[in-house]
Design brief:
heterodimer, A: about 425 residues, alpha+beta, 2 domains, 7-stranded antiparallel beta sheet, 6-stranded antiparallel beta barrel, B: 5-stranded mixed beta sheet, about 50% helix
């Protein structure tokens, strides 16, 4: 919906596809090398681990060169390698057109086979034909808040780098667990191991929000994925992604449907607010405008979780936004002319991934005393490759000649039942 | 003085010639020296003679033409025959009617209906009234569609393009009319174009009300376009009547054709788009919103609404299947 800004930071996934500028980051790399002088000393016994970190590349044989790079590490004697799902997503999108390759610190390279992935936690399991001797061990012990973590990876294809910093426990307001790491992770370090002082893997580098705010996938998710011991075939990638999203959404949406939603006053009416811990609301008003024709307040409540599927496709978003306008100098007709029902989704998609939105708009009887004209616009589009999953946009406009409340619910990658139940709960919460 | 008007209707259109019978017989034919020149290759250079009898009746006489002259399906010979005003006469490919010019002939009989009506109304008062109404409706339209606090001086200022358009149409087609028909039709054209704009504005608002009431009907833009094309077709038809001598059928064909072209060119680009280009990330729904008092029907029960929304899912699934079958 237009006119509502989000004040959330952007999380940059750490795979590198050669499009980022290098200049500013070069300085960063140098300074982090200086900063971590003493931690390099601590690491001395495990410094050979540097050489065990692999660069993972998705190669397009047609172009004859790599299209994106990340990092990875071997976790078992039989050659299992862990990296991020987003590092190999280019391969999952087109398994018969691309290849996954590794490159060691001395420049040896070879092909890797994709065995399994976890799109929710952003992990992938790869296998190398001829395993190396040394493997990383996964820490059996949960990380203690404040414990120093050493993240390894290959930023911008510059060479293996180590970044150290304390971890700050799990990130607040996230449904999917992520470790909050105070270190500078940079593009290309995705999928690299984050280890403790003992050299055991405690997490996997995944994303950064800049300025030493970085995120790791907890080691527990890696253990769980390895325990699955699955071996996927290319034909089933889409079906597997569908299954994973469905399982995750079922668990995530269940309590949202069962429990009553927290409400707060919004321009004189009770509207949904931070409906669970993983939702955050931000609000604003145009109270600084000089002599406005309408006074407006808006609020956006969203869950930060989203699933990265490809550079052009993301899913799992859950946004609610609300806007109240009060006419200051307009008559009913002019005020009504300001309403418009077009909507934009929060997730990225393309022709290849989704159908067009199909919509139905109508005026719906209000079940309350107030004489508001209520227009409900429901729009749905289906994922083309993830059967039974839909993106949905819902707009509930309640208006009279002086006031209008526009409430917007944007949800992504849910089943028909989930979409209908959430839309219904949202609409009922407003009526 | 016996004035009469010879009305000729053939493939060149309809034309009128005023002749005076008191100065002697009038010759109709293909010859440049004929009194009424007829461009028709089946007509002789000197084909037909119209004269006045001693007791003041009109007489017709065929001057020995090859293809002859038909009056009431009978051939007119060399002996003069009586003619009654308004009877249809056929020579060659042309239809001829002779009208008594001294009688009180309704203007509409001589000129086409459109121009007749317009000429009847054409007077300085009417020109002024049309302009005033045009401005009023323009300002009203701005008022109805405003999203800001209404500013009448701004709305008045923004009405000038409509007035200029009306002026341009009047001048250009007025000159055409002069050239093609030798008639002065500036007045009728001014009234015609003023009223076309006025009717368009009123119709646009009615369409907006219909679209508002009919939210779930997602062809609102089609309705708007159809409305605009229809008004344009009527305007063009009237314009052609004023400016040219084209037959009704031709005028109808041209105006309908133009309207169809407008409709087609607006929709064809969408129709011929590749599936890939038809994809759009956002939503498109009816945008018309008016105050509740314009809602002339009852609101839908929420349960009914939910049932209607149900089909969006299966339709999307069908779309997935359709695209998969197309292998896109």
């Amino acid at each position: 919906m237009t006119g509502i800004g989000f004040r959330c930071y952007w999380v940059l996934l750490l795979f590198f596809s050669g499009v980022y500028g290098l200049y500013a980051q070069e300085a960063d790399v140098e300074s982090s090398a200086l900063d971590t002088g003493d931690s390099a000393f601590v690491l001395a016994p495990g410094s050979e681990l540097y050489n065990e970190v692999l660069q993972i590349r998705v190669v397009s044989p047609k172009a004859g060169s790599k299209s994106s790079i990340g990092s990875g590490f071997q976790v078992s004697d039989d050659g299992l390698i862990i990296t991020n799902y987003h590092v190999v997503s280019g391969f999952v999108q087109a398994p018969n057109k691309r290849k996954i390759e590794y490159m060691t610190h001395i420049g040896e390279s070879g092909e890797l086979e994709l065995l399994d992935f976890d799109v929710i936690n952003d992990l992938a399991v790869l296998r190398v034909e001829e395993p190396w001797e040394k493997t990383f061990t996964i820490s059996p012990r949960p990380l203690i808040k404040g414990e120093v973590v050493y993240a390894l990876g290959n930023p911008y294809d510059l060479g293996i780098t180590q970044v150290s910093g304390p971890n700050n426990g799990l990130v607040d307001h996230n449904y999917v667990d992520k470790i909050f790491f105070s270190g500078s992770l940079n593009p290309g370090m995705s999928g690299g191991p984050a280890i403790n002082k003992a050299g055991e893997v405690v997490g996997v580098n995944v994303a950064t929000a800049g300025n030493q705010i970085s995120f790791l996938v907890p080691a527990l998710a890696v253990t769980k994925l390895l325990e699955r011991n699955a071996s996927l075939v290319a034909e089933n990638y889409d079906a597997e992604i569908t299954t994973q999203i469905k399982a995750w959404q079922a668990e995530r949406i269940k309590s949202l449907l069962e429990e009553p939603w927290a409400k707060k006053d919004f321009a004189g009416r009770e509207f949904p607010d931070e409906i669970r811990d993983d939702f955050q609301c931000w609000g604003g008003a145009n109270d600084e405008a000089v002599d406005p024709v309408v006074s407006a307040i808006s609020k956006t409540c969203q869950s930060k979780d989203q699933i990265y599927l490809s550079p052009q496709l993301s899913a799992g978003h859950f946004h609610m936004s609300f806007r109240h306008e009060k006419s200051e100098r307009l008559n009913g007709l002019q005020f009504a002319n300001r309403r418009g029902a077009s909507m934009w989704p929060n997730n990225l998609s393309r022709f290849k991934d989704s159908t067009n939105y199909r919509c139905h708009a109508d005026f719906v009887k209000d079940n309350q005393e107030h004489d508001l004209l209520t227009r409900v616009t429901t729009c749905v589009r289906a994922f083309r490759r993830f059967s039974g999953l839909y993106d949905s946009l819902l707009l509930v406009e309640q208006m009279n000649n002086e006031n209008s409340w526009s409430s917007h619910l944007s949800i992504s990658a849910m089943t028909k039942d989930q979409v209908q139940a959430l839309n219904n709960k949202f609409t009922e919460a407003l009526r | 003085m016996k004035n009469c008007i010879v009305r000729i209707d053939n493939s060149h259109g309809v034309s009128y010639h005023t002749v005076n019978l008191e100065h002697g017989p009038v010759i109709v034919g293909r010859d440049w020296n004929a009194d009424v020149v007829l461009e028709d290759r089946f007509v002789d250079p000197k084909h037909l003679q119209i004269s006045l009898s001693e007791n003041g009746e009109v007489l017709l006489e065929d001057l020995g033409s090859v293809n002859g002259t038909l009056l009431k399906r009978r051939r007119v010979g060399a002996t003069p025959v009586d003619y009654k005003w308004g009877q249809l006469l056929r020579i060659g490919d042309s239809k001829i009617t002779i009208i008594d010019g001294d009688a009180e002939v309704e203007t509409t009989l001589l000129r086409s209906n459109w121009i007749g009506v317009l000429s009847k109304w054409s007077s300085p008062w009417m020109w002024g009234l049309s302009l005033a109404l045009l401005t009023l409706v323009q300002v009203g339209e701005k008022y109805l569609n405003s999203r800001q606090a209404f500013d009448i001086s701004k709305a008045l200022y923004e009405s000038w393009p409509a007035v200029v358009a009306v002026l341009v149409v009047t001048i250009i087609f007025g000159l055409f009319s002069r050239l093609l028909k030798g008639e002065n039709n500036f007045g009728p054209l001014w009234i015609l174009s003023c009223w076309s704009v006025i009717i368009t504005s009123i119709a646009n608002f009615l369409v907006k009300v219909i679209r508002f009431n009919w939210q779930s009907f997602d062809a609102g833009s089609l309705l708007t376009l159809f409305n605009a094309s229809l008004i344009f077709a009527i305007f063009l038809f009237a314009l052609l009547s004023v400016v040219t001598n084209l037959r009704t059928k031709s005028r109808m064909g041209i105006s309908m054709g133009f309207a169809a072209v407008i409709m087609a060119t607006s929709f064809a680009p969408d129709y011929f788009k590749e599936e890939r280009q038809k994809w759009f990330a956002g939503t498109r729904t009816e945008q018309s919103t008016l105050p509740k008092s314009f809602l002339l029907r009852g609101e839908t029960e929420y349960k009914t609404y939910l049932a209607e929304v149900e089909s969006l899912f299966s339709e999307s699934d069908d779309e997935v299947k359709r695209l998969a079958e197309l292998e896109l």
